[in-house]
Structure formats: structure tokens, C-alpha cells
Amino acid sequence: MSRVTELLKSAVELNLKYTSTLLHLSKDYLKDAGEVISREPAPAPAPAPSPATRPPLLIAGRSGETGNAAFAINNPSEKDMSVHLVVQGDLGDDRVQLDPARFALKPGEQTIVRVLVAFDDKLPENHDHVGQVVAPGLSNQGVPFIVRRLPSADMPAVPPDEAPKPAASPRARRAGG
């Protein structure tokens, strides 16, 4: 009978150790899970600035014209946002105008900003003037743009049916075409 008693004591001891270990693991699991759930989310790492993230706006025109391009700006935050845009680059605020240059956006709102350039003879033809529109204090990225004055259109446009036809190749002429 003592053998049965010893086996029974060993089984109870094993069961108590198993239960104790299981309770200890469960307690640790719940403690760690509580810390993970109540932890503040870690801020997302800032993306490395990349100059090629947005293709530049192209603003082209002839002397006497006003060229324009546009881009959207939105407020993804949960707070009101006051924006003051500034032009940087080869051409200043006297040549490049923003419409609007100052505005406020409520959370989730967006607006379209037009970039306007008055072309005249003072701006050299076929030369790229590089710049960007920035919002100081709001972002380290700007909206790049390129301004180019096109040559004057001295020659009137020729309709496609009146355009000169390319000469036939020597091989085509020999073949009768």
C-alpha cells in the first residue's frame, strides 16, 4: 500500500508543479499583453527626404502669356492648419504668383493651389528656371516646378493636310512608289 501512496503523492506533486508553472506563465503572459496593449504607439520614423518623390510641375508659355500649373495640398492631421506658401528658386515672388498663397484648412480638408507665371521678353527663351513652393514650418518637402519661356510663334501653324509630305526613299521611287 505504501507503493500506491508514494505513486499518488508523486502524481499530486507533479500536478501541483504543472499547475503552478502554468499559472506562472499565464500571469507573465497577461502582464506582457497588458503592457503591449496600454503602450503608446511609437512614432513612425520620418521618411528620408527624397528630391525625386514628386515630379516637377512644368510651366511653359510665350512672351505675353500667363502660364500656370496646380497642385493639391491637404490637412491629414486632426488640428486646424494655417498655411503660408513661399516661392524659392531662380524666380522670385515678383515673377511667380501663388493663388492662394495663404489659407487655413480644417482637419481632412484640401485646397488647390495655382502657380502662375507671367512671361515677357525679359525671361530668356528655352532656359529652365527651377524653383519650388514650400510651406515653412509645415514640411521639409516642397513642390518643385520648372518655368520655361517658349520661342515666339512667328510662323502660323500649318494644318496636317497641308503639311509638306516627306520625300520618298530611292528604293520606293525605283519600286514605283
**Highest CATH level, the class of the largest domain:** Mainly Beta
CATH architecture of the largest domain: Sandwich
Please tell me the total number of domains. 2
Class from secondary-structure proportions: alpha+beta
Task: Please describe the biggest sheet, giving its number of strands, its sense, and whether it closes into a barrel.
Answer: 4 strands, mixed
CATH topology name of the largest domain, in short, is Immunoglobulin-like
Sheet-strand content, in percent, reads 25-35%
Order of helices and strands: HEEEEEEEEEH
Would you kindly provide a written description of the structure presented here, covering whatever features stand out?
The chain is an alpha+beta fold and 177 residues long. The chain has two domains: 1-35; 57-149, Immunoglobulins (Immunoglobulin-like, Sandwich), CATH 2.60.40.10. It has two helices and nine strands. It has helices at 2-38, 170-174; strands spanning 57-61, 66-74, 81-84, 86-89, 96-99, 102-105, 110-118, 128-134, 143-149. The longest helix is centred in the N-terminal third of the chain and has 37 residues, at 2-38. The N and C termini lie far apart (119 Å). The model has no long low-confidence stretch (mean pLDDT 78).
Keywords, separated by commas or semicolons:
single chain, 177 residues, alpha+beta, Immunoglobulin-like, four-stranded mixed sheet, three-stranded antiparallel sheet, 9 strands, 30% strand
